[in-house]
Amino acid sequence: MYPRISDLFIDLFGIELWFPIYSFGFMVAIGLMTGAWLLQREMDRLYGLGRMKSIQIDDPEDKTSGKKGRVRKIQVSPSHLVGTMTMLAIGGGFAGAKLFHLLENSGDFFRDPLGMIFSSGGFTFYGGLILATALIARYVKKKGLSVAMVADAAAPGLMMAYGVGRIGCHLSGDEDWGIVSNIAAKPDWLPMWLWAETYPNNIMNIDLSAAAVYPTPIYEFIAAAILFGVLYRFRDHKHVAGWLFWLYISLNGLERFFIEKIRVNNKFDIFGITMTQAELIAAGFMLAGVVGMWKLWGGRAEPEAGSDT
């Protein structure tokens, strides 16, 4: 494993960088850029089809723009907002992911609050998704766009970004791995690295050499890639705006609920049922996604109106 990409440079090229590049943060950044690129392309496509309205920005070629009250405005594709949306996703995503992790591990937090807060590991995806979505929705609504339509445009990219981010978990070995794998049950055709992993040199400094575990981040990357294909296939659905996002929410919850069955995680007793925080939220996502899709099933997709939907 390479918790730091900079260590990989040393092994491959003999080059020692003067600053460390952590593989988790690096892959999360790649995932965010991938999601932003896909969102930008989809918003441009919808704008070109007349299904998403333009936004108004200052004309960068207006030589009088420095004089108050004389700035010329131009109409452009709403994809110009993706940069700011990405920054909100970064800030809200990391803050929400860290907050949910602290809540999930409150005992460890009270024993070492500063260590938990400033640890390079310890992030809960759902916390980041919920807070980042709320911030971006507020920003999009403020700009006069349909939150539901932008959410649809973002859905495939969100799924792929999640999968790419999971590769960061795998490379760093941040304890998002699975339970001890059953070596005897491995199919002969499946390579060992897809069935059991010891995560040497992992960032948590946990020795797994005596009990290899399921490499669940790889499974999640594969699942995310497949589900990205499903969401991409339904980009031109004929239902009311927001339907594709609810499909994403449902599929996201479905994937996470089942992967939790073989993942190491803190478990809680809720109404006599033992489950992880992620399982509980994933079940809620599945239910919310199905209800949302059902409510929007009967309508027809229409071009974006002047007001938010």
Description:
The chain is built from 10 helices and 4 strands; from the N terminus they run ααββαααααααββα. The protein has one domain. A hairpin with a 2-residue loop joins strand 3 and strand 4. Helix content is 54%, strand content 5%. 39% of the residues are buried. The strands form 2 sheets. A two-stranded antiparallel ribbon has the order 1-2. The chain has a two-stranded antiparallel sheet with strand order 3-4. The N and C termini lie far apart (46 Å). The radius of gyration is 22 Å and the shape is globular. The mean pLDDT is 86. It has helices at residues 5-13, 23-48, 82-104, 106-111, 113-117, 125-142, 147-172, 216-233, 243-259, 277-295, and strands spanning 55-58, 73-76, 267-270, 273-276. The protein is mainly alpha-helical.
